[in-house]
């Protein structure tokens, strides 16, 4: 009917991030769209769900918790925070659509299969791996938020395993921020020392042999749930 207006679609989407030590890259979880009656069937997208659809949600926090517990994700995350809300009349072919975007981290290499896969975060943010809807743009917003918070908090450590090397830290920070690993190395080392002083991480007596170079010391996260705020922003020099 010409006078009818469809209700706006409201959803939550989440970018779940991990550090792949073997490949030296940050990765994001993607989900293949399974419903042939919905747009972009068979294409990759961020995990998401409609708010107040078949299930009534009392808050955005309740909706994102429901998403994380659903089969679309189905594993625990070490940190989750809201990034942005976007909405317009063209991002979904079904009509006006608004989504609230979250980013979350896993601190170990959770493996997935079937309709889920881990994909290089930078490839997605740079549109070298295309997603459904406007999800490439959402992923770039997630990457930018992550890079920004790397500058003044310890949030990046939420993506590292419980035991990690200094090379892991430098590689992860450089990849996400688009920086040369040689630049900012001194500042990153100083950050690790600050976190040792704050008793958030500890230098262990263990070492690990990487593919190249000498054995490296392993550090241990003592309070992985704590996000530390530094008194100075991370330098690129």
TrEMBL record:
Keywords: Hydrolase. GO terms for molecular function: hydrolase activity. It comes from the Bacteria. PANTHER family: ADP-RIBOSE PYROPHOSPHATASE, SLR1690 PROTEIN. This is NUDIX hydrolase. It comes from Pseudomonas sp. Hg7Tf.
